Description:
The chain is an alpha+beta fold. It contains 15 helices and 31 strands.
Amino acid sequence: MKISRYILPTLKEDPSDATVTSHRLMVRAGLIRKESAGMYIYLPLGLKVLQKVTAIVREEMNRSGALEFLMPEMTSAELWKESGRWNTMGPEMFRIKDRNSMEYALAPTHEEAFTSAIRSLISSYRDLPLNAYQINTKFRDEIRPRFGVMRSKEFIMKDAYSFDMDEQGLDESYQTMRKTYRTIFKRCSLETIPVEADTGAMGGSQSEEFMVASEIGEEVLLICESCGYKANQEKAEFRHTAVENKEPEEPILEVDTPDVRTIDDLTAFFKCGAERFLKSIIYTADGEHVMAVVPGNREINEHKLKNHLRAAELELASDSAVEDVTGAPVGFAGPVTEKKIRMVFDISVKDIANGITGANKRDTHFTGVNPGRDFTVTEEADITIAEEGDPCPQCGKAMITRKGIEVGHIFKLGYKYSKSMSLTVLDKNGKAVNPIMGCYGIGVNRTMAAIVEQHHDEKGIVWPMSIAPFQVLITGIAKSEEEIASVDEIYSMVRDAGIEVLCDDRKVSPGFKFADAELIGIPVRITVGKNYFNNNELEIKMRRTGVSENVTKENLLSRIREIIAEEMDIIDN
RNA sequence: CGGGGCGUGGCGCAGUCCGGUAGCGCACCUGGUUUGGGACCAGGGAGUCGGAGGUUCGAAUCCUCUCGCCCCGACCA
């Protein structure tokens, strides 16, 4: 391909709306253009990269034995009603109607669609195990799309769904996908960290997310460098050490605390550490009010709380609801009360001695509050967020935190969909049983953006050979007609050898071409200029290392093939 | 949805406070000179100043409403 016949709108200046490196570089290098908020156009160069990523995903999925499908993007409301998600999916799902008022969803995911499709295709245990997948667009009405294609309203996902006869089979399918994912990301030259993930309240027993460590990541990971425990903060546990030698109990006292509501206010007022307070927050879980009580120095992990409560919806109670429930304005709630409200205590609450808590009365707190004596720990669970430095749940060593971009997710679904949608096969005894399912997703566009995050320098993108839009860029610096013909001859030779090559034949200055070459990041650059016209020397320069070498025209092809093989080798090993 | 910011040729911005009929850089077109690290000269095309309404002799500028976009928080690949 010649650039003179290509659309390659590179930009010298950063787009004003791009805040992260991958977004900035993808726009500047002419890979993508914004169509509107959360929707992007892939220009020819960007599409090539996307196709390379897609090809790797497809190859590895096929190698794992999975079968590729292509599902409709418009999924009928009936499907979603069967599983119950028509109501629970909420505003994130785009819903549309046809002229006959038939309702559809623009698929945000395809569990229902695949379960339904497979239901009509299989009937015997002999058909299992089965892993069905597709590479297709997903639509999600994101609250806030951002970071370019990293989080968009429309994106390409590889989604796979496994069907097995039993848990052991599911585990095998899950482990196969786990391995496949590691291979896929490795082939994309993307370093990922698999972490334990939240499985949610709706069932599902095991789940891992594949994270790319990055400062712009929207996920927080807790990592134990000692034993290798890795988990998403939503899920991460930490070891609670029981306090020995508690202080002697003091009497409970009512204290006037005018307008002292927050933990910061309280520590200033009482001149003591935040851990002494019993932070009591009122939530609404599926319509029921719940008081969550945690030590004042810790944050509530709403995922853990939601899972513990087995709630579908969990949100902070409104100010008026708090007043109804506690009899006091927000800021004065506490577990010492006659009121009937469900309370969930973090497992470390029972160790607090002579604590301070709201008195459920305006401008009033209790001091000297002791669990067991002043209130009963009725319901106990781990409901706080693990933080940097907390002891690892496995080995007790201090954990560190990292930010991560989630590029893949594998999940043991269990029977949720096979049961709710009546997917059955006959087992060996002729009895109808529900297969057990797993689901496995990779964000393809996000993977592409994550690769740019991991492979760039101050001049631009540095594509790994495996997903580069072209393997080789020829930069022609020709003046006369003869020289132009000469560049063209080199280009034809490389192209005809089956090498993916882009030729910069534009009539612009060399510096301009070199700067663009670095911006778009094609791994190998061949400069055809005066050294070639005069001395038969072609310069090969590697984008990744900056190392250059000279070859003759005769040796060019063999040397390029060698370099491509070497670069692919680096990725594989 | 809450908080903050921004909408001016394709892109990046100035002009807005203090009203006088739109400008700069990049990109684009023509001609010429250059060209192994983002060349130069000359000429040129391109903007309902996000939209609607209002105030005014006169609005990019002031007022009202509205739409869009970006950033910070709760969802997710």
